[in-house]
Design brief:
- The protein is mainly α.
- The protein is built from ten helices and no strands.
- Helix 8 runs antiparallel to helix 10.
- The longest helix is centred in the middle third of the chain and has 22 residues.
- The chain is flat and about 60 Å long.
Amino acid sequence: MARRARGRPAGLSRERITAAAVDLVDRQGLDAFGVRRLASELGVDPMSIYNHIKGKAALLDAVSEAVLTEASSAAGQWPDDWRDIVLAMAREYRDMARRHPRIFPLLATRAQTSATALEAIERLTAAMRRAGIPDQAVADAPMVLFGFLNGYLLATVGTGTGADGQPAAGAEGAGAAAPPAFDPSQHPTLAALAPLQAGFGDQAEFERMLGTIVAGLAQGATPRTVTA
């Protein structure tokens, strides 16, 4: 009978560890996350985790890749037109952030260089090049798109807990700060525009701002005619 290697409990794998890590951060947040806490959840010695994933930083990378893979898989068949790819990618990214509000800050604040992340960027940039878009506009597109997505979603996706102690995932703008009330005597323009911000963080606002980003990318993709 084969003897199990020391430090490798039966059934423990990178996939099982990553799934447990995603679940733990979803429930308790990043501040409470650590190798020892995760090992306790799995009922194993911490060293057993290190046999599969080398340390907390690597665990956080695995968690990030897991939720990005989830978003990519949800998109199903990707479209061919680069504008449609931007829209599909952005919508799935937002949905993922709302499902995992406590994990999302990892994606916004850590470099994403996993195979899943690079495949998504490759898909977008390849479609833009096929459309004959100048290389500089193609090179700028990922930073423009994800600069908007990360900043917007950090501001509008909640990371707090509900009354039951669970993360407030799935609710529009849950846990996010509402736009401030402006004193019209001090900031008359901002006060006049405030009613247009009533849908802070909702789907309609996201689609409107995403449309602005796509229009900006399209404008940058069209070479301007320089006249003497």
